[in-house]
Write a structure and sequence with these properties.
single chain, alpha/beta, Rossmann fold, 2 domains, globular
Length: about 350
Amino acid sequence: MIKSLQSIVLIVTLLLTSIVSANEDSPNSNLQDSKHVVMLLWRGVTQAEQGFVDEMNKNDSVRITILDADKNRETLAKHIDSLEGLRPDLVYTFGTTITLSLLGSTNAPTKFNSSGEIPVVFNIVSDPIGSKIVDSVDSSQRAQNYTGVSHIVPYEVQLNVIKELGDIRTVGILFNPLENNSQIAANTLLAVATQNGINVKRYPVQKTTNGIEKANIQSLVVEMKNDDVDLVYLPADSLLISNAKVITDIVHSAGLPTFSATESPIRNSGALVGVVSRYYYAGQFAAFKAQQILTEDTFAGDIPIETLQQFSYIVNADTANLIGYFPPVSMLKISELVRNKDVLETP
């Protein structure tokens, strides 16, 4: 069902009684009274949007317009320009790139942000403060008309899990130097790992018109082997997530295990292990905040920006068998074991 939405680039208006098509002939439909939510997406519908829609579906008086940028900044700019004509009651944004494009930064807000007329709920933003979307997640210190959900498990927690894996002295992190959130992830992991006695080395991935090149990843893996890297870390970055299968195939063929900060590379692309916040649950949490705004007339700035408090351990059993690297039994007991056939419909 969701797969059919993933390729949508044009505007698609949906009544939440059906995620696939609007049913304006239903006796329960009243477009004039319904609340209009516009969803600005970067790489199609993910499990985060499925969770958001499923939760919002409990309210029959809400309709949705999906605007998918399809990883194109020009398309995104056109979608943002179209918001005035669409007159939404609330805007949902996916990821740091979309959110910064719509709102700007704290020291350079956009016209849309400065007007404060339309509330925004952002989702799947790795570091709202580090990305300068907000100065504080505390609602008492914010006057802007937006709130949101961060999906990243605290780096201290991730590092503790990495330490549980065994003899990990050096972690190599692949990152996208063109994306601010990816750089922040690399720098933050470096700082936290240093405090925990683990070395971190950073390896910038070259972006091409087709995504990434295998030769670039192969070259970086050679560097990692020369640097005695014990484990490769995949941060929350759309470029790396979209190309995770290419990355994991090359990394694993070199005998190096992978740790993912997000769920999709483990399920869809064979990354070995991770402790993650599930996209679906993040979507539900974002919907909870949206409902507070739409049905309770709560000002978005009065709603705290939060991360999920419940994390999931996931281990890809096929990858563990492939590379001969198995997490300790104590970790396996509390982990969800997945196989490469157990894929989500969208990354």
